[in-house]
Amino acid sequence: MRGLLNKLVSRSLSVAGQWQQQQLRRLNIHEYQGAELMSKYGINVPKGVAVSSIDEVKKAIQDAFPNENEVVVKSQVLAGGRGLGTFKNGFQGGVHIVKTDQVEEIAGKMLGQILVTKQTGSQGKVVSKVYLCQKLSLVNEMYFAIMLDRKSAGPLIISCGKGGTSIEDLAEKYPDLIIKVPIDVFEGITDEDAAKVVEGLSPKVADRNDAIQQVKKLYKLFCERDCTLLEINPMVETSDNKLVAADAKMNFDDNAAYRQKEVFALRDPTQEDPREVAAAKADLNYIGLDGEIGCMVNGAGLAMATMDIIKLHGGTPANFLDVGGNASENQVVEAFKILTSDEKVKAILVNIFGGIMKCDVIASGIVNAAKHVALKVPVVVRLEGTNVDQGKRILKESGMTLITAEDLDDAAEKAVKAAAS
């Protein structure tokens, strides 16, 4: 057993990292919503209108862009890589600069259609809105971001004199141009800090003092709205010497939902995994993955260890699902509904170490789930801890066909074998 634990500790498994990365994304909002929020803080953004129908497109062109020859049409999905994406109807590109008399045609090819990008996966995301934006006369494109930094234990501002492409590509091609400015969370951003950021942006025509003020306003937004990420790519200079946030990605801390009601009201569940939406309603912690073994565990640490040991035995977990330490039978039923809704799941592994969460409650939940959900895949159950004997008796007397396991290693091995059969 010690050897197994050493392997688990020494391995840098991608599953736990994938779960942590998902958790850090938090609430994400659409570009048009971010632009509206930034404008409230006095941050320069392009004039734009979000529309969801052709009738709204016509009205927006007449009201907002009566004198414009060209307009930028941007599909609104919560994923990057829109410009290089492909719609399932065959239309290429989720971002287009077109003549105003072509906007209706282009928007019509986007609205209600599914856009596939490098970040959506093959299933893509439906475009319910398009964002019609003013075409800017650009002089320069740059990169700007504020994020939370573990090393400095506070916000970190990143700026680069080149933008319009991924920061990974920028860092690889121009590592010396990436400027990082940590901000003292107690002191806040100073004029000196903001000046360093502006120097990193290397503006060509924008007024330096105005640019410093824009940086400070962005930092104020980041703090006051509990952001975990504010990324502008590109940050642009226009021919009228302004620094403008031409595009933005904003994430927010879920723990701040109670005080950021205005922001969290912007959540778009149509852009989220429906399983994750259902899990949130049932007060379950769920993240969908791409494997074939559905997992139901109590406790985040045990859940990640379960996913890791599944990988160790050659399987792949289909999800992270933590029912918590005080789940009810109804929540267990909902958990099974979510697990069985995933067509890729070939087996389910229930791994419970009873402490606050009692094994008999989980067992009753499994039995009730079988009454409400058609369990068409093998179910492996490992129970240990509080009321474990009662739990095992409930499962045995239920008459269900279950695969029982004595420990975590045994459970994972049986789940992988069951999924492969």
Automatic annotation (TrEMBL):
<keyword id="KW-0809">Transit peptide</keyword>
<comment type="pathway">
    <text>Carbohydrate metabolism; tricarboxylic acid cycle; succinate from succinyl-CoA (ligase route): step 1/1.</text>
</comment>
<feature type="binding site">
    <location>
        <position position="298"/>
    </location>
    <ligand>
        <name>substrate</name>
    </ligand>
</feature>
<dbReference type="GO" id="GO:0042709">
    <property type="term" value="C:succinate-CoA ligase complex"/>
</dbReference>
<comment type="similarity">
    <text>Belongs to the succinate/malate CoA ligase beta subunit family.</text>
</comment>
<dbReference type="GO" id="GO:0005739">
    <property type="term" value="C:mitochondrion"/>
</dbReference>
<comment type="subunit">
    <text>Heterodimer of an alpha and a beta subunit.</text>
</comment>
<dbReference type="InterPro" id="IPR013815">
    <property type="entry name" value="ATP_grasp_subdomain_1"/>
</dbReference>
<keyword id="KW-0479">Metal-binding</keyword>
<feature type="binding site">
    <location>
        <position position="233"/>
    </location>
    <ligand>
        <name>Mg(2+)</name>
    </ligand>
</feature>
<feature type="binding site">
    <location>
        <position position="141"/>
    </location>
    <ligand>
        <name>ATP</name>
    </ligand>
</feature>
<feature type="binding site">
    <location>
        <position position="247"/>
    </location>
    <ligand>
        <name>Mg(2+)</name>
    </ligand>
</feature>
<feature type="binding site">
    <location>
        <begin position="81"/>
        <end position="83"/>
    </location>
    <ligand>
        <name>ATP</name>
    </ligand>
</feature>
<dbReference type="GO" id="GO:0004775">
    <property type="term" value="F:succinate-CoA ligase (ADP-forming) activity"/>
</dbReference>
<feature type="binding site">
    <location>
        <position position="74"/>
    </location>
    <ligand>
        <name>ATP</name>
    </ligand>
</feature>
<dbReference type="InterPro" id="IPR016102">
    <property type="entry name" value="Succinyl-CoA_synth-like"/>
</dbReference>
<dbReference type="InterPro" id="IPR005809">
    <property type="entry name" value="Succ_CoA_ligase-like_bsu"/>
</dbReference>
<feature type="binding site">
    <location>
        <begin position="355"/>
        <end position="357"/>
    </location>
    <ligand>
        <name>substrate</name>
    </ligand>
</feature>
<comment type="subunit">
    <text>Heterooctamer of 4 alpha and 4 beta chains.</text>
</comment>
<dbReference type="InterPro" id="IPR011761">
    <property type="entry name" value="ATP-grasp"/>
</dbReference>
<dbReference type="GO" id="GO:0000287">
    <property type="term" value="F:magnesium ion binding"/>
</dbReference>
<feature type="domain" description="ATP-grasp">
    <location>
        <begin position="35"/>
        <end position="261"/>
    </location>
</feature>
<keyword id="KW-0816">Tricarboxylic acid cycle</keyword>
<keyword id="KW-0067">ATP-binding</keyword>
<dbReference type="GO" id="GO:0006104">
    <property type="term" value="P:succinyl-CoA metabolic process"/>
</dbReference>
<keyword id="KW-0460">Magnesium</keyword>
<keyword id="KW-0436">Ligase</keyword>
<dbReference type="InterPro" id="IPR013650">
    <property type="entry name" value="ATP-grasp_succ-CoA_synth-type"/>
</dbReference>
<dbReference type="InterPro" id="IPR017866">
    <property type="entry name" value="Succ-CoA_synthase_bsu_CS"/>
</dbReference>
<keyword id="KW-0547">Nucleotide-binding</keyword>
<dbReference type="Pfam" id="PF00549">
    <property type="entry name" value="Ligase_CoA"/>
</dbReference>
<dbReference type="GO" id="GO:0005524">
    <property type="term" value="F:ATP binding"/>
</dbReference>
<dbReference type="GO" id="GO:0006099">
    <property type="term" value="P:tricarboxylic acid cycle"/>
</dbReference>
<dbReference type="InterPro" id="IPR005811">
    <property type="entry name" value="SUCC_ACL_C"/>
</dbReference>
<keyword id="KW-0496">Mitochondrion</keyword>
<dbReference type="Pfam" id="PF08442">
    <property type="entry name" value="ATP-grasp_2"/>
</dbReference>
<protein>
    <recommendedName>
        <fullName>Succinate--CoA ligase [ADP-forming] subunit beta, mitochondrial</fullName>
        <ecNumber>6.2.1.5</ecNumber>
    </recommendedName>
</protein>
<comment type="function">
    <text>Succinyl-CoA synthetase functions in the citric acid cycle (TCA), coupling the hydrolysis of succinyl-CoA to the synthesis of ATP and thus represents the only step of substrate-level phosphorylation in the TCA. The beta subunit provides nucleotide specificity of the enzyme and binds the substrate succinate, while the binding sites for coenzyme A and phosphate are found in the alpha subunit.</text>
</comment>
